[in-house]
Amino acid sequence: MASINYDQIKEAATHHPKPQDIKYTYGTAGFRMRADLLDSVVFRVGILAALRSKKLDSKFLGVMVTASHNPERDNGIKLVDPYGDMLEQSWEEYATQLANSQTEDELVEVIKRIVVENNIDETKEANVVYARDTRPSGPALVMALEDGLKSVGSEVIDFGIKTTPQLHYMTCCLNTKGTEKSYGDPSELGYYKKLAEAFRKAVDGKPRISALYVDCANGVGAPKLSELARHVGDDILEVIVANDDTRTQGKLNHLCGADYVKTCQRLPLGMDIEKGKRGASLDGDADRIVFYFVDEDGTFKLLDGDKIAALAASFVIDLVKTAGVEGVKVGVVQTAYANGSATNYLKNVMKVPVSCVSTGVKHLHHEATKYDIGVYFEANGHGTVLFSPEALKTISSAKCETAEQEDALKRLRALTDLINQTVGDALSDMLLVEAILVNKQWTLKDWDQAYTDLPSRLVKVVVSDRHIFKGTNAERTLIEPVGLQEKIDALVGKYKDGRSFVRPSGTEDVVRVYAEAATREECDELAYKVSGLVYDEAGGTGGRPEEFL
Ligand code: G16
């Protein structure tokens, strides 16, 4: 292949000018903001993906156009490394530099710097695959992405509309094809078949449980879940798809979806499930899931990412023990948003090692690879279970002496295929939870009994500049604005089991305030006071946070 043609890049870039006066930041999961401001960013991310592919010996890089849980007017871009994990963090800075280079000349300078610093062979082929969710702004942004890719002469595969985890899966499959690490068939059909087959094995011989109603946030999860359910078969899993309107403008994530349900702690619009029925919500790109039900007394009960982590960890630990592969150790990774009761249960009742890292799947995933089996979930429902190569080897080569051992081993092996190893995946996680509940013949209420969440509250505070907030200690302690943390601590000290922390969101233009305490009243009061403090002392704009009724 010829070297990079910088004149070609300059010419293409004139069609995707960077708006003046905007500073783009690479957030928790890539760039994310109002879609009408993203054209130049997406063009440049195309260039970055191609450069990284060249650097990685022409491996396939993935690019997903999505804004996940954000409102429909937003869009964004997530980058997927060859084995399905998020973009290597040292390259986030390059993404930021490319996105913020104002002129075509500056852009070319940054590209040349990346090439030199990484010793990139310009003549290597670049391979990039991409997909998008159902947002109306998606097609135009994909065209900008293609222009960026073409300007560097990249080979491309357009996977059309997919969930984010499907793109992660396919990127990994393409790069492992024909090797001993082959992850599967790099197609949507291959994805469904792999999951469906593994689910069948995981629930083999156990009776089906009641139907699961799934709120798909009116997003890409709706058609994909229907397709998956068809492959699994309703003889073993009955899924009722709700909020599947991907065509009517304004409906995506509107009063529905995993983020809404978790934040507001109430049923989504369009899912009026009766007492005793089982519900779940996906987010806009189907990488998060939360479960819920309405108790006999009418209380809404949420089973979030923390509950999924505890369920998955305890099931896996039991299987490991019964299968006789006890050398394989399980650990759990959480963030500061994990409910205090969840952490306490895992550490002190289940006696599992627990690590706490900064928000963002990229941080959790990395930490989880340190365990033989690493269970990582954010409280918002984003997560998965990772099996280390050694654990996989032990599980696949283990010999069994009893029928009980054989059964446990069969189910454990099925889980290694059922659980998406590349990233948190709502569809795969849904099947994982269902497989565990089927095996245990549990209702959601049975699952919920393990521990009782401390009342918690998540508040969004709008400030003039959220970038002035800087944290440390896995984002649990603010170091800037100076003095604010001491004031938060003084408030927290007044409440039994009180805990509160503040951090800037990396996906929305808000500051997030988290609070928990022994009772609902105390928790709400603490959340109200801390968010008021943030608003008053750190440039709150718009309405001052209100008391919760
Ligand atoms: C993304 C990340 C998650 C993170 C969430 C919220 O999720 O992948 O790890 O928890 O953003 O991040 P923040 O609090 O910084 O806004 P998604 O599903 O929106 O892509």
TrEMBL record:
Its cofactor is Mg(2+). Residues 481-528 form the Alpha-D-phosphohexomutase C-terminal domain. It catalyses: N-acetyl-alpha-D-glucosamine 1-phosphate = N-acetyl-D-glucosamine 6-phosphate. Binds 1 Mg(2+) ion per subunit. One of its GO terms (biological process) is UDP-N-acetylglucosamine biosynthetic process. Substrate binds at residues 378-380, 503-507, 512. Residues 207-290, 304-442 form the Phosphoacetylglucosamine mutase AMG1 domain. Its EC number is 5.4.2.3. GO terms for molecular function: magnesium ion binding; phosphoacetylglucosamine mutase activity. Residues 61-102, 104-177 form the Alpha-D-phosphohexomutase alpha/beta/alpha domain. SUPFAM superfamilies: Phosphoglucomutase, C-terminal domain, Phosphoglucomutase, first 3 domains. The active site is at residue 68. Gene3D superfamilies: Alpha-D-Glucose-1,6-Bisphosphate, subunit A, domain 3, Alpha-D-phosphohexomutase, C-terminal domain. Keywords: Carbohydrate metabolism, Isomerase, Magnesium, Metal-binding, Phosphoprotein. Catalyzes the conversion of GlcNAc-6-P into GlcNAc-1-P during the synthesis of uridine diphosphate/UDP-GlcNAc, which is a biosynthetic precursor of chitin and also supplies the amino sugars for N-linked oligosaccharides of glycoproteins. Belongs to the phosphohexose mutase family. PANTHER family: PHOSPHOACETYLGLUCOSAMINE MUTASE (PTHR45955). This is Phosphoacetylglucosamine mutase. It comes from Acaulospora morrowiae. The lineage of its organism: Eukaryota, Fungi, Fungi incertae sedis, Mucoromycota, Glomeromycotina.
